[in-house]
């Protein structure tokens, strides 16, 4: 809201016909047109919707960027031939967007600047410059089409420079000196003399295959068949370059503009069609209701990300016969990972620490180093339990002598009478850890057996002689 | 049609289903390493390519059951190459396998692939899928609390195991009841260890087996030879001469060990009731 009350931020065609213009006060606009329908300005929502639409535009090319407040830039390089050339693609895009109820203006040109100029000030809703030289087509357009500030255009208009043609070929230095570097930069960008880059809204895939369906797909079965049709050429494409990918995504475009997508990961590089089909097919089946086809899917895209050259594995030399079975195991792990999360599939790996709970780590299989550390073989700790509690649990213990094992203790509401104890095994805190945070007391571990033969691993936390007020903890169980 | 004919029909159907119509395959077994146990088991050991259930005889015996399962797992890992899939639910109360302890037990922790799951339904799915993969050495599932595991689920698991030849071990709760299609069921109770060593000793009950035999043994786990051994009979007998403290201690413990645990437990229960 600015001084003078609410103002008009945007108008549709009907309102413009009634004489409502942007920046008018709402009171004036209502006076002009009493039946005016108004809604609150929502820049955040506009931005979100624009990005959603930009995502939808990825169907034409993976390089798409939103250009707020109301533009979308698509890089058609190498993509237009798939739809029969630039003009067919532009017509198709225009038609589809109009069907969504949007008022669209399209510009297709060799530079972003020229395309922007055409889309905002072009002669027709769909304007195309086929020529590599954009200058002739731009000469008639106003200077505002160069994406420069309005005060620059105003000052240029004062000296009689109103269209782009008036600037082309003029000495650059005086123009830059008087009207700023930006004018020259924008002019160069529009004419293709200066660089302009585009940041894609989502990282584009390394490889992709897609299929269009004149008759939208409605059944799960059809989608699965389509998946097979897409995976096979993608696998061929990858195999040709001996590449493998670690991430695949299947994107389904619904007729009404809604996009459904699902992503699967693999632990090892893969380029096999049956792996993609199995993993994606399972995810697709798991989506079930969520994959609501509505009026059907008209375009399905399969993307491959994070591709790398597959190195022949040395390990395969040892057991060439195991190769096929090994692949079934990799697939099993990938399927686990995609359904349960890769962080939940892991192996125990030793870690350099003598604090029991820190002496091992569960490392996700996907992040396993090629050559993990071996568990120490010679030095097997017979004093270690087979299972640890997630964290040590406080117990009430009564010890006869300060340094001895307890004679009786309560754990989880059960009283245990100790008949046999071995220990203590003293585990001091790591001295390098003392620099940070608080000093952790020393632990004295005991192996305890109670009167029924249950075996436990308990420790006293702290030493009496240091007046640390020791407490007892249950840490693990022996078989 | 008499019973015999019906039985023959059923077994024909069973075999056809289990092996995909190829006829009954040769099924090997995994020896426990203890000749006495292997003799009593119909297949000369734990039947390979089948489902086996292990449970503790009480809540506190879960670590003993875990130990027995790990013992079978160690035997399994010796028989077959490849990784072992260990499926376990994620829960605060669960016991987590401890690598150094496994090393001491005779298992290379590097061969275990641990799958942590949130729901029992995922656990059963993961077990089934793992049984389909011939590359794995074995599959172990830990089911402390079970809601979905029933006869159908066990039948599915054992059929898959039969088809692929992969052995599945299922660690169940002591409260587990109901029929299941398991090839064998074991019930484990911890026992006081012999006086001369801190070695795990268990009373192992075979409650269900393919030949219908029920047996029990007192066994210890031999982590050096990686096999089960019968517990020494003499271990609990108090020596006649009491020249040091040890016999006194073992005698002191003997009544507690020979008495069943249940009376003791119910005694404390009674006391509690009285106190109330």
Structure, briefly:
In chain A, 28% of the residues lie in helices and 27% in strands. By secondary structure, chain A is an alpha+beta fold. Chain B is an alpha/beta fold.
Helices and strands in order, then pairings?
The complex is a heterodimer of chains A (479) and B (276).
Chain A: H1 13-17, H2 26-32, H3 43-56, E1 64-67, E2 71-74, H4 86-99, E3 106-108, H5 112-121, E4 126-128, H6 135-138, H7 150-158, H8 172-179, H9 181-191, E5 207-217, H10 220-240, E6 243-254, E7 259-270, H11 273-287, E8 297-309, H12 323-340, E9 345-350, E10 360-364, E11 387-399, E12 406-411, E13 414-427, E14 443-450, E15 455-461, E16 471-477
Parallel strand pairs in A: 3-4
Antiparallel strand pairs in A: 1-2, 5-8, 6-7, 6-8, 9-10, 11-12, 11-16, 12-13, 13-14, 14-15, 15-16
Helix pairs in contact in A: 5-9, 8-9, 10-11, 11-12
Chain B: H1 3-18, E1 29-30, H2 35-40, E2 46-47, E3 51-56, H3 62-79, E4 84-89, E5 96-97, H4 99-105, E6 112-117, H5 120-131, E7 138-143, H6 151-164, E8 168-172, E9 184-191, E10 201-208, E11 215-222, E12 227-230, H7 245-258, H8 261-275
Parallel strand pairs in B: 3-8, 3-9, 4-6, 4-7, 7-8
Antiparallel strand pairs in B: 1-2, 9-10, 10-11, 11-12
């Amino acid at each position: 809201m600015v001084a003078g009350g609410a103002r008009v931020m945007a108008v549709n065609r009907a309102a413009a016909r009634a004489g409502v213009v942007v920046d008018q006060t709402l009171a004036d606009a209502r006076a002009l047109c009493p039946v005016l329908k108004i809604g609150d300005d929502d820049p955040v929502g506009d931005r979100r919707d624009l990005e959603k639409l930009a995502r939808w535009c990825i169907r034409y090319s993976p390089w798409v960027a939103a250009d707020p407040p109301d533009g979308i830039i698509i890089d058609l390089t190498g993509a237009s031939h798939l739809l029969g050339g630039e003009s067919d693609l532009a017509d198709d895009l225009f038609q589809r967007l109009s069907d969504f109820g949007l008022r669209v203006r399209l510009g297709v040109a060799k530079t972003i600047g020229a395309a922007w100029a055409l889309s905002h000030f072009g002669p027709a809703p769909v304007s195309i410059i086929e020529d590599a030289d954009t200058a002739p087509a731009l000469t008639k357009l106003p200077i505002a089409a160069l994406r420069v500030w309005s005060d620059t255009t105003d000052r240029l208009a004062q000296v009689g420079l109103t269209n782009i043609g008036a600037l082309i070929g003029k000495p650059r230095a005086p123009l830059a000196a008087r009207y700023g570097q930006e004018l020259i930069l924008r002019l160069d960008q529009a004419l293709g003399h200066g660089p302009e880059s585009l940041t894609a809204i989502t990282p584009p895939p390394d490889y992709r295959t897609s299929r269009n369906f004149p008759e939208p797909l409605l059944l799960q079965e059809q989608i699965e068949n389509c998946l097979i049709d897409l995976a096979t050429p993608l696998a061929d494409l990858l195999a040709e370059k001996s590449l493998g990918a670690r991430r695949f995504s299947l994107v389904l475009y619904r007729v009404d503009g809604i996009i459904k997508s699902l992503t699967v990961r693999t632990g090892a590089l893969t380029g096999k069609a049956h792996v993609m089909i199995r993993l994606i097919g399972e995810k697709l089946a798991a989506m079930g209701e969520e994959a609501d086809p509505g009026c059907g899917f008209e375009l399905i895209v399969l993307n491959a990300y994070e591709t790398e050259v597959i190195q022949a594995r040395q390990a395969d030399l040892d057991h060439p016969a195991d190769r096929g079975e090994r692949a079934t195991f990799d697939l099993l792990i990938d399927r686990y990972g995609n359904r349960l999360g890769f962080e939940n599939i892991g192996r125990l790996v030793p870690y350099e620490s003598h604090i029991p709970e820190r002496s091992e780590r569960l490392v996700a299989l996907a992040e396993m180093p090629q050559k993990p550390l071996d568990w120490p073989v010679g030095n097997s700790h017979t004093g270690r339990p087979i299972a640890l509690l997630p964290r040590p649990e406080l117990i009430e213990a009564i010890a006869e002598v300060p340094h001895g094992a307890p004679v009786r203790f309560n754990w989880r509401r059960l009283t245990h009478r100790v008949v046999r104890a071995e220990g203590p095994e003293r585990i001091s805190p790591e001295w390098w850890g003392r620099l940070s945070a608080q000093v952790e007391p020393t632990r004295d571990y005991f192996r305890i057996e109670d009167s029924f033969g249950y075996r436990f691993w308990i420790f006293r936390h702290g030493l009496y002689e240091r007046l640390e007020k020791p407490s007892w903890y249950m840490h693990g169980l022996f078989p | 049609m008499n019973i015999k004919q019906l039985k023959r029909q059923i077994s024909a159907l069973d075999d056809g289903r289990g092996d995909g119509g190829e006829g009954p395959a040769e099924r090997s077994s995994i020896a426990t390493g203890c000749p006495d146990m292997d003799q009593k088991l119909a297949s000369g050991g734990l039947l390979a390519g089948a489902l086996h259930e292990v449970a503790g005889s009480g809540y506190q015996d879960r670590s003993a059951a875990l130990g027995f399962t790990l013992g079978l797992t160690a035997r399994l890992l010796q028989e077959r190459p490849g990784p072992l899939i260990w499926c376990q639910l994620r829960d605060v109360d669960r016991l987590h396998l401890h690598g150094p302890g496994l090393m001491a037990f005779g298992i290379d922790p590097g061969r275990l692939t641990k799958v942590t799951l949130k729901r029992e339904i995922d656990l059963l799915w993961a077990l089934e899928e793992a049984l389909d993969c011939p590359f794995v050495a074995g599959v172990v599932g830990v089911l402390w609390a079970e809601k979905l595991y029933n006869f159908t689920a066990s039948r599915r698991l054992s059929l898959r195991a039969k088809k692929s030849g992969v052995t599945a071990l299922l660690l169940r709760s002591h409260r587990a009841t109901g029929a299941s299609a398991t090839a064998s069921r074991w019930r484990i109770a911890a026992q006081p260890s012999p006086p001369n060593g801190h070695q795990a000793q268990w009373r192992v009950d075979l409650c269900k087996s393919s030949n219908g035999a029920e047996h029990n043994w007192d066994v210890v786990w031999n982590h050096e030879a990686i096999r089960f051994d019968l517990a020494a009979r003499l271990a609990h007998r108090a020596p006649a001469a009491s020249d040091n403290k040890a016999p006194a201690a073992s005698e002191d413990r003997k009544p507690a060990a020979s008495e069943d645990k249940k009376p003791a437990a119910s005694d404390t229960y009674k006391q509690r009731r009285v106190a109330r």
